[in-house]
Amino acid sequence: MKLKEGTHFTQKSFPCRQCGASLVFCADENALRCAYCGVTNRVNPPKLPIYEHDLEDALAKLESTPKVNLHAHLVAKCPSCGADFDMDPHLRSTKCPFCTSPVVTNLDIFMPLSPESILPFARNQKEAKKIFKKWVGNLWFAPNSLKKFTETDSKFVGIYLPYWTYDSQTHSNFKGLRGDTYYVEVRRRVNIDGRETYVDDLEARIEWTAVSGTIDRHFDDVLIGATKTIPRKLVDALEPWDLHNLQNFDEAYLSGFESEVYQVALDDGFSYAKEYMSYEIREAIRHRIGGDRQQINEVKIYHDQSSFKYILLPIWTAHFKHHNKSYRFAINARSGIIKGERPYSKTKIFLAILLGLLILGTFFLAAEMDNGLLSERFQQIQIQLEHF
After folding, report:
1. Which residues, listed in sequence order, are joined to residue 175 by a DSSP beta bridge?
2. Chain segment 145-168, per-residue pLDDT in tens
């Protein structure tokens, strides 16, 4: 790995001005707070505009930049206790495994790009646990071990994940077919009660018309997760984010939380963004074509004035194991949206099916008994009538 010129790999913490303990960012107060004496320090990031960077220029510069080896061995020194420990090459900030003090590094010196904006944590760990417990309580057939997991001091980890946002002005040329439904009267030969006869039916048909045109659309802040440690499906499900509240990046926001550097390259992220844009454009084309049915035969999409931002967004996450399989949950630490991979209890499902069959069997048995009693009553009435 190649360091940015004139820099060194360093670690730092944010000591309390009163007692010297490490300060941790507190979501409740939007400030650094000392867990021992309660002193708070405001975070004062620079008041700068949130810039969009030209994508083509950045990609051209990255072509001449050496590739990053994210698997290189890094050793960090805790600023509080002085212990050396191996640093996960994806993490810029973490906690010391010996004294749990927050450690913030300048790992971005290994990366061609650094984050310039961030959404700070707005929900604390206690709130995250409540959200998780409520979510589990609403799950059908959740195993008892999962519910017990919510009662224990389960370890929720606060992480800042890297994201790309992309803007792009698109111009699309398309060709296709518009299908309009019309009906014709068709005589059919049918067999009714053994006799052949004819009936008149209405049959739907499609009239296809060739169409072509253009679609111009501007995309703003298409969000692409740049992490590989959490499944993309889970990361995407945490949207929407209040990106209008982005703050200028400041290392103080990272104190007490893990934070990752990007693992999805800028050009790969744009490829994902173009897939999303393509889907939206094709939906717009279908709307433009109109009619009852649409066929899109050809689409050519051109991108212009494309730009990007590199940002960090906060989540709470936890792991749960059930039958040797790992399940992951994530909470948007701004909105409180929770998504996760949920396990099922086979025992509860089996018992539910058994109970359903038991209820169904009881219902049919009661119906049969009712039918028997009715039959017996009719027989008694018939005998009485005969005697009369």
Report:
1. 212, 298
2. 777 777 776 678 999 999 999 999
